[in-house]
Amino acid sequence: MNAPTPFPNQLPTQTAFHRTELNAILSLYGRFVSAGEWRDYGISHFKDVAVFSIFRHTAEHPMYRIEKRPSMRLKQGQYVVLGMEGQILKRGNDLRRVLRVLERKLIRAVD
User: Fold this and answer.
1) 5-36 per-position pLDDT tens digit
2) Which of 19, 25, 66, 70 is the most exposed place for a label (fewest CB within 10 A)?
3) Residue 44 and residue 50: Cα distance in Å, rounded?
4) Of 108 and 34, which is predicted with more confidence?
């Protein structure tokens, strides 16, 4: 009988954003905060999805959600930006390209 391995190869118990992913998201977030558009954020980590929620005010529903779903990597893309009503604004495997849908809104807000 084989002895159990001390560190079995298991999938992570939760999905999380990597440091480089958070840097890209927080860079965009900081520009919107300085423009006065966004005021708060929240990060949630679940088994199959990591969510970065963006709020205009703390006590309301998020304006936007940036989600990472690794299970969708080979299908429609693991990153998605969702609007307040849950509509998909942009989806893909390149986070910076997906975030461009929000950058366009910043350009309009500054004009």
Assistant:
1) 555 555 557 888 899 999 999 999 998 888 88
2) 19
3) 6
4) 34
- Helices marked H in the chain: 19-34, 95-110
Edge-to-edge strand list for the sheet holding 50-55: 40-45, 50-55, 64-68, 79-82, 88-92
Contact 63, 38 (CB under 8 A): yes
Query: How many Å apart are CA 51 and CA 62, to the nearest integer?
Result: 11
Quote the DSSP letter at residue 3. P
Residue 80, beta-bridge partner list:
67, 91
96 exposed, middle or buried (CB, 10 Å; 0-12, 13-18, 19+)?
Answer: middle
**Does residue 56 carry a pLDDT above 60?**
yes
Q: Where are the domains of the chain?
A: 19-110
The SS3 call for residue 12 is: coil
pTM for this model (two decimals):
0.79
